[in-house]
Amino acid sequence: MRSADRLKSCLLQFRVSPAGLHFSLPHGLLRALTLLIVSAAWIVIAANVEPALANPGGITNIFKPLSQPAQEIREISLLVIAICATIFLIVAGLLAYTIVRYRHRPGDEVSEPPQIYGSNQIELAWTVLPLLIVFVLILVTSRTIADIQNRKPGPGAVQATVVGHQWWWEIRYPELGIVTANELHVPAGTNSLPQPTFLKLESADVAHSFWVPQLAGKTDLIPNRQNLMWIEPTQPGTYLGNCAEYCGTQHARMLIRVIVQPPAEFERWVAEQKRAVTEDSSTQEGRKIFFANSCVNCHTIRGTSAQGMFGPDLTHLMSRETLASGATLNTPATLRAWVRDPQKLKVGCLMPNMQLVDEQVDQIVAYLQTLK
Q1: What does the alpha-carbon distance between residue 368 and residue 314 come to, in Å, rounded to a whole number?
Q2: Kindly report the CA angle at 58 between 53 and 64, in degrees rounded to 5?
Q3: N or C: which end of the chain has fewer CB within 10 A?
Q4: Do residues 76 and 188 both lie within one domain?
Q5: Other CB atoms closer than 10 Å to residue 198's CB: what's the count?
Q6: Are residues 65 and 176 in the same domain?
Q7: Pair (182, 70) in one structural domain
Q8: What is the pTM of this model?
Q9: For residue 196, what are the domain limits?
Q10: Residues 297 and 258 in one domain
């Protein structure tokens, strides 16, 4: 096929008739556009469909920020989108006008039009304007980054350490003496009385990334390095986030829940988390089985001999909404399925199938349900 024919097969085909202007699409371009439209439709559907049971709130939206860092990121994002949209409309408009205005008409000469030298003014404009746009974006981005990164903790600010594991989140409150997992509780502030929470981000194994879209941007968790970030939510609620850095098989099921509570409710949660485990005589058999197996080598239950550091702290397991870092809701049925065979819910997780019989599973679950 000649070069001209190949070019013709890839472009819009225009035809003029007494009824007006008509055009047709070559099959290859038509298939590509169809694939693009279908892909965009799937993205829109996926963004609005209820995801897993562990995410009853749906996918959070970066364009509905409810925290100061996220608000600043939204503002700069809208600026970039506006600039890019303007450039697109100008270029696409000129291209469409050129295609229609200078299309081939019956009677036009087949020979190539005369080639003339371009306009110095136009070439100068499309060189200077992009430079100015890039310069503006650099300044605005630098100012936003500085505003976010230079924020310092004030008196009374909540401070927490988040440690990424494959595939769950360890959360420590050093000043409060609390250790939990997968659910970060923070107090809500107001415009007149901000209540920021400052986070130290660490990794125990591979690179992870902490991202709660409505509260802040993404920040990586890198082994042997400590990164910092902060959030300042103003509206109580549960905000879903996730690991935004591919970290292994169950990366997609490494969810994080940030539970924003009114200050008084947050203080009650702190008091409950500090409370020691209450022994229940009716679950002694389950307790014995738990401590007789290797569970104690990985998990901690404060106030007992279980002091493992490889898995989540179970001291107040039943106060959490989900299991396995958001893989499933924390209900008696799912807790039993998790204890029976963790690999069925989260393939590749480091918690093995202990090969327990049904009676032993029931007794352990009954004991774990007392950890509130």
Answers
A1: 8
A2: 160
A3: N
A4: yes
A5: 18
A6: yes
A7: yes
A8: 0.75
A9: 61-106+151-274
A10: no
Residue 236 included in any domain: yes
Within a 13 Å sphere around the CA of 110, how many CA atoms are in the beta-carbon half?
A: 1
Same domain, 263 and 313: no
pLDDT tens digits for the chain (372 residues)?
444 444 344 444 444 444 444 444 455 545 555 655 655 555 444 444 333 344 444 567 778 888 888 888 889 889 999 999 999 999 999 999 988 888 877 777 767 767 777 778 888 888 899 999 999 999 999 998 888 888 888 888 899 999 999 989 999 999 999 999 999 999 998 777 888 899 999 999 899 999 998 898 899 999 999 999 999 998 899 999 999 999 888 998 899 999 999 999 999 999 999 888 877 778 888 888 888 888 888 888 888 888 888 889 898 988 999 998 988 899 999 999 998 889 888 888 888 888 888 888 888 888 888 888
Question: Which tokens in the block code for residue 293?
Answer: 């197996």
Count of structural domains, the chain = 3
Q: Residues near 301 by Cβ (< 8 Å), separated by ≥ 6?
A: 277, 313, 314, 315, 371
Domain boundary, last residue among 231, 249, 274: 274
Co-location of 200 and 79 in the same domain: yes
The enclosing domain of 249 has a CATH number of: 2.60.40.420
